[in-house]
Design goal:
globular, alpha/beta, 27 helices
Length: about 625
Amino acid sequence: MKSPLHILNHYWGHAGFRPKQAEIIESILNGKDTVALLPTGGGKSICFQVPAMAQDGICIVVSPLVALMQDQVQALKNIGIKALSITGGISIDTLRTLLDNAIYGNYKFLYVSPERLQQEMVQNAIREMPVNLIAVDEAHCISQWGNDFRPAYKNITVLRELHPLVPIIALTATATPEVLTDTIAELQLELPEVIQNSFVRPNIAYRVYKEDDKLYRVEQLLKNKTGSAIVYVRSRKTAVETSNHLTHLGIPSTFYHGGVTKEEKKKRLEQWLRGSVKTMVATNAFGMGIDKADVRLVIHIQLPESLEGYFQEAGRAGRDGQPAAAILLYNSYDKKLVQKQFIEALPGPDDLKLVYRKLNNYFQIPYGEGEFTAHSFNFTEFCNTYDLNTMLTYNALNSLDRLAIIQLSKEFGRRTALQFLVPSEKLLDYFKSDASISVVGKTILRMYGGIFETSTAINLELVAKKTGLNVPKVIEALQRMQRDELVDLSLFLTDASITFLVPREDDKTINVIAKEVKQLNKKKEQQVASVLRYIENDQQCRSAQLVSYFGEEVEEPCGICSVCASQETTVTKKEAQLISEKIMILLEENELSSRSLAEKSTFTETKILYVLRLLIDHGRVQRNNRNQYYKT
């Protein structure tokens, strides 16, 4: 058996392990059940991949994240390690072939979704495999108190029955003490070695600011910054709009969300990883499994739904140990919005029964059938067909996915994308040859600017309406232009896919999970309340607040967060005098806001505000009802 360090160096090119990795690997190689609790960026995958490579046999990896499973399998293949994955939406013949490969093909890793473990065929095949390790990723999903509880995770214990002597490693980044205890019990771990790295990230300054003009603050934070940044938003529309706004301001950025094509995602990720584009504006679809060490700034411009999610996303800053900042911007409306999005639109059991019944009717699935059948799905069309509330329906579909009733691909809002590849003169000459193509092409040119420069999302229904043609005719015209090499066309007629994981039993299906639905909703209410407490608590160190949420106490405040910084007077007497003189000179000419004073000087707005308070206290300056300052 080669040493873990040799394996790490040979396959991954690293000279040494990160904190706690060697200890976790040693525990596994000693045959112990192990819990690895490592914050984001701690290198959890290495903790099971290296010991699996150090032993004969195959490692079974259970994960709820299909995209991450596929990424990890590809990453292993890229370094010469045989790996495969089994998820929903594949045929029985394909499944049988994959399982045979895992048994007889000398593979080292089999990634499987917890839903697939319910199938007898999968269980029988795993029984025949020479399993050396069972890795449970995102292990907190087995706990009803976890931030992403999935009942299907309770089926993981079947692996212990199939291979009782094989050690299990449970990995997570976001377990509170309550969740940790529950996870160990649910996985039936035997006297596990619990190895936990500190949640404290001393190089990250956690800052929270209440801002009415959040985009202006983002601009100031990003302007003249040399390192990479991530700006997190909550919707695809906001991602696109924010990225365009920043680029217009001279801050090169790109955007990333679940509706971007696979090719575009890869291209944009590579631009960001290389540093040719410094800022990535993204939904929470971005970041999982992406290891970029030199991110200097992570900014949230909308409130997250949980501190677990926020801590994970904020933790993508400063993985190289160098100073970094995680900044959360909010305003009064955001507090109402987070309640509306995540609490008021929570689906109860009756809501799930309605959506589930309509879903089965939509796909004409007979009672007692439908298990493991996959279907293309248009979310908007579905909601319109049954006059359903979109927010409640979206949350209901996510709940059905989480509770292992369906498997849902998150591709809502995906649209056909088009780019013209030839000059406009040549294109107009081409249009003269065919009237139907001409009307489609010219309509698109009028509707979408920049379509010669970049691939642009187009709405086929809207184009059809503008031209007076039906959608098939529009598609026919686009496909002909594609054949004649005039356009680059990515055609998407559906925006999601759904795989039913259980036979149709209507209300009975939901009654089985009704208790879990209520628990999930209660947990979500608690999570949102924790987020609101965090942003409103401006007395306790931000870092201390976050790590205490995960059960860790710190003796000293961090000294660099927005709370710690506000409690210290960082303006010296001499500096205050200089700032005061500059303010008085600038106010000679006009009444000015603190922002304008900062822009017209070399001092930060924080220091300007500090000195303005002193000047007001001494009666030298006053403020009008437009938040502008003037000399008295």
